[in-house]
């Protein structure tokens, strides 16, 4: 359960990454300290920064720069990759087309998902079947993003091994039938300057208060614009002030279920009070698309012996959200 935290902890995960595939990793002092910090952060805030993650700063910045260049294009150019049901909900959406709890969000975005082939998961995957819609301009967008998402997938898997140890399980507790073949989502998001600053009367929330759906999120945010806000137990909004060279990480609904409530998927929102257009790239590491997610036995034992949550099939949970998230 989240607490009245006033700031978001910073964790150097490099000792964990150095030993992630060592059968004796849990006995390493450096790994044990990272695991302790992960456990504390997931219990108290559900959010943490990670440094020492090994993804080049130059690539992290280039992803943001290229995202800026795309959103700077004329609207007609962006519409060439417009999202629709026919694209499996992949592609571009204009400002106000994403909905959070019935309210239009003041951002534009490109939505990408791990590609699903026809019939891959039977009827469960039908709405999400398709290939990602990549712009031709800027050039090399597809190649750069695929490299970036591959690195994010690898990093997320390693962090989840540390979280599995923090929960009291084995390092591979969250792999196999749970997330051994992980689905992923990536959103490249642009937040215009607040309409109120321009005398407008539109909603000023870039993205309304929500929790994430899956296991772990990696947020690549601008170094000089504070916009992401995380709600503590008292209802205060705590700013995730940018720390260059880090990702902001948070846990999602599926990890909350797996942990039987030991860890919380914390409400967060985005408000761009800056006079500058802001981008962020959010990568979501998810369970296997067809995974049946239930509280882990070790977590049930640690929380009094009773399951606090009903199970959920991840793909069904995702599709239910996606089908109500957009004005199309």
UniProtKB/TrEMBL annotation:
What keywords is this UniProt entry annotated with?
Cytoplasm, Dioxygenase, Iron, Metal-binding, Oxidoreductase
**Family recorded in the similarity comment:** Belongs to the iron/ascorbate-dependent oxidoreductase family.
Main localization of the protein? cytoplasm
**Which Gene3D superfamilies does the entry link to?**
B-lactam Antibiotic, Isopenicillin N Synthase, Chain (2.60.120.330)
Q: Is the tRNA-binding keyword given for this protein?
A: no
The UniProt catalytic activity note for this protein reads: L-homoarginine + 2-oxoglutarate + O2 = 6-hydroxy-L-homoarginine + succinate + CO2
Q: Which residues belong to the signal peptide in this entry?
A: none
Question: Which one of the record's GO molecular function terms can you name?
Answer: metal ion binding
Which residue range or ranges hold the Fe2OG dioxygenase domain?
A: 182-287
Name assigned to this protein: Fe2OG dioxygenase domain-containing protein
């Amino acid at each position: 359960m989240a607490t009245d935290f006033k700031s978001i902890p910073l964790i150097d995960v490099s000792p964990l990454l150095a030993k992630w595939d060592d059968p004796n990793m849990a006995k390493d002092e450096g790994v044990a300290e990272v695991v302790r910090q992960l456990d504390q952060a997931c219990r108290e805030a559900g959010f943490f920064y990670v440094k020492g993650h090994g993804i080049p700063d130059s690539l992290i910045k280039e992803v943001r720069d290229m995202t800026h260049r795309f959103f700077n294009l004329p609207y007609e150019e962006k519409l060439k990759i417009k999202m629709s049901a026919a694209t499996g909900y992949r592609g571009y959406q204009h400002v106000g087309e994403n909905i959070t709890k019935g309210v239009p969000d003041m951002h534009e975005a490109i939505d990408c998902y791990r590609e699903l082939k026809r019939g891959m998961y039977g009827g469960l995957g039908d709405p999400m079947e398709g290939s990602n819609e990549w712009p031709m301009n800027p050039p090399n967008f597809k190649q750069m993003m695929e490299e970036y998402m591959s690195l994010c997938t690898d990093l997320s898997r390693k962090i989840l091994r540390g979280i599995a140890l923090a929960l009291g399980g084995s390092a591979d507790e969250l792999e196999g039938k749970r997330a051994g073949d992980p689905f992923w989502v990536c959103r490249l998001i642009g937040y215009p300057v607040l309409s109120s600053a321009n005398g407008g009367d539109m909603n000023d929330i870039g993205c309304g208060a929500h929790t994430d759906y899956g296991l772990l999120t990696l947020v690549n945010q601008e170094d000089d614009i504070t916009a992401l806000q995380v709600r503590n137990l008292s209802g205060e909004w705590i700013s995730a002030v940018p720390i260059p060279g880090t990702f902001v990480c948070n846990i999602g609904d599926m990890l909350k279920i797996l942990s039987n409530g030991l860890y919380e998927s914390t409400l967060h929102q985005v408000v761009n009070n800056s006079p500058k257009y802001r981008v962020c790239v959010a990568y979501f590491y998810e369970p296997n698309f067809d995974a049946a997610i239930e509280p882990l036995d070790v977590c049930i034992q640690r929380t009094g012996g009773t399951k606090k949550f009903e199970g959920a099939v991840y793909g069904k949970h995702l599709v239910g959200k996606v089908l109500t998230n957009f004005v199309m």
